[in-house]
Design brief:
The structure is a single chain. This protein is α+β, with helices and mostly antiparallel strands. The protein has a domain of 36 residues. The protein contains 19 helices and 7 strands. The chain is globular. The mean pLDDT is 92. It comes from Peribacillus loiseleuriae.
């Protein structure tokens, strides 16, 4: 690993360090030299657990089959089994991707695929080299209700039923999840790239820059190069880069030709340049990504480095943010981390959003919908009341 940026990696488990060495394209010779050391020191159960957690087992297998002496035979065989299982999963998702695209297009609904097997093809050149548990699509907000009706009519069941007041769901949330019980496919329908309050490109802008995927016969549209980089950076940062898969996506996408001038401009426009820098520093440090001249404006200043160092917390502990309940210490750290990602303007919007009524205010003091506007002046009082009740019962 490259230590030019001096991130503190001392507490990362050696099993994860070994995985990073395997995935680093510049370390093949070093791996062969150290193979005997790795074989003696590695806890292979933990190695496999890390590979599964970080969703990198297909890529690991593709590299390790060229260096079979690096791991015990049973470990390689288990990785091969998971690789084959993932390949079938990606083919299954690809078929559904085409079906959903055709279904919504027939109803005159524009749809962009954000994640799924298309990322394997787009970034790795092979859908089998990247994992994906579901499909993520982006549709215009005004078409969301129609999309929901169409999916339900075609066998999908809606999984998310979040509470809302004064239409706050439109900006506090960013997707709804559907599940098809017959195909066992989960579909996340987005109307925003990320949850608010934040600024980001509107759907029409993203649609104008769309590209067509090459993995389906029916036209299936994906984000443009720079928009995909923007989405992968903001998504990975929001999850603390707690899975290496998201960081490897960054490593892969920077190999493709990018308009770094336009990309830097977009990141600055939406106040995400510090997240772009964080991603590039982590990718360079952990995966040996080459920092080109066009990328250098992203990594200037100390904020990106500070954010990059904070994500090491997740790698040290193999944090899973997707399974409830998240341990309290990790949850508190993650809340502070998310706040640290924000620019000054984003922090202002976040603080301002606390003045907007929450569904908990409705639970505290139910009012008829026609006077829900009263929750704005009542919110400070209701917050204080809940706090006093909590203290009284604690």
């Amino acid at each position: 690993m490259n230590n030019n940026n001096n991130l503190n990696l001392a507490l990362i488990p050696k099993e994860l360090t070994f995985i990073l060495e395997i995935l680093n394209e510049k370390s093949d010779d070093l791996l062969l030299q150290k193979s005997e050391v790795w074989l003696k020191e590695i806890d292979w159960h933990l190695f496999f657990k890390q590979a599964m957690h970080h969703r990198v087992y297909p890529l690991l297998f593709s590299k390790l089959k060229k260096h079979e002496n690096l791991v015990p035979l049973n470990v390689l065989q288990t990785l091969q089994h998971e690789y084959k299982r993932n390949t079938f999963q990606m083919l299954h998702l690809t078929a559904e991707m085409e079906k959903v695209s055709e279904l919504l297009t027939d109803h005159h609904i524009q749809i962009l695929f954000l994640k799924g097997p298309m990322l394997g093809s787009e970034l790795y050149g092979d859908i089998s080299l990247r994992t994906s548990g579901d499909l993520d699509v982006l549709v215009p907000l005004e078409k969301l209700s129609k999309v929901e009706d169409i999916l339900i009519q075609n066998g999908y069941e809606k999984n998310d039923y979040f509470q809302t007041v004064l239409s706050d769901w439109k900006w506090r949330h960013h997707h709804i999840t559907f599940f098809h019980p017959k195909t066992n496919i989960k579909l996340e329908v987005h109307w925003r790239l990320n949850p608010g309050p934040s600024m980001e490109p509107c759907f029409n802008e993203l649609w104008e820059r769309k590209r067509i995927s090459e993995i389906t016969s029916y036209p299936t549209y994906i984000l443009g190069n720079e928009d995909l980089f923007f989405f992968l950076v903001t998504h990975g940062a929001r999850h603390g880069w707690s899975r290496l898969r998201w960081l490897i996506d960054i490593h892969q996408i920077v190999k493709k030709e990018q308009d770094w001038v336009a990309l830097n401009k977009t990141l600055r426009k939406y106040h995400y340049q510090q997240l772009g820098g964080q991603a590039m520093l982590l990718s360079s440090e952990l995966l040996g990504t080459t920092i080109s001249k066009g990328m250098k404006p992203l990594i200037q200043g100390s904020h990106s480095k500070q954010l990059a160092q904070k994500t090491i917390f997740y790698l040290e502990r193999m944090v899973n943010l997707h399974t409830e309940p998240v341990p309290e210490d990790i949850s508190k750290f993650h809340q502070r981390y998310l706040y640290s990602l924000m620019s000054t303007q984003q922090k202002f919007l976040y603080i301002l959003s606390w003045m907007y009524p929450y569904p908990t205010d409705v639970e505290t003091l139910p009012l008829p919908k026609k006077i829900h506007f009263l929750y704005f002046p009542l919110r400070p009082i209701l917050c204080m009341w809940r706090k006093m009740r909590k203290q009284a019962f604690s």
